[in-house]
Amino acid sequence: GESVGLHLPTLSVQEGDNSIINCAYSNSASDYFIWYKQESGKGPQFIIDIRSNMDKRQGQRVTVLLNKTVKHLSLQIAATQPGDSAVYFCAENLTSGGYQKVTFGTGTKLQVIP
Amino acid sequence: GAVVSQHPSWVICKSGTSVKIECRSLDFQATTMFWYRQFPKQSLMLMATSNEGSKATYEQGVEKDKFLINHASLTLSTLTVTSAHPEDSSFYICSASPAGSTDTQYFGPGTRLTVL
Is the pLDDT of residue B19 over 60? Predict the structure, then answer.
């Protein structure tokens, strides 16, 4: 069953500073990783992705780093803005036999202080 | 492009009734659709994966007779919560993967279900 009474870890960042959100994933066979942003009452929004044959990928103001040795993923947001305030989830994707499964991490709430 | 809609956005129902939630891919054909449930301050939990024209694959612990999934076309999947109880109150989110791009998921805006 689901866990009860969890509180999302929160990262508070001053506007203009860089943010780093970390995530540990569970399955060493996962081959594709995605970061999502979720605002209150809305569905997840794709931010950036990375495949397991890469260790870094950059987008606009965002960078994802993948360390397969320790099964760790991070999302770096440059020059954080108030509009970046949301909950951020990492997700690992495992494809096996034509079937894919995406598992979401626990999430981190980013609060940007104006 | 790649827009997924859900209907309704929110629904309140009485305990014991059934509720149907629709998930539509508006501008692409979705061979696979996923249904997630999210409780407050928690992550998304995959409930089931549905492929067009075949039976859904349910995750462990999800009752297939309670959460009926139908994926009758390449643009529509429905989730019916049967005999809803207050503990079924949650945020239900669907996602859809386009044909030929199975590791890409486009998420819907979610449906807030409250069971009284």
Answer: yes
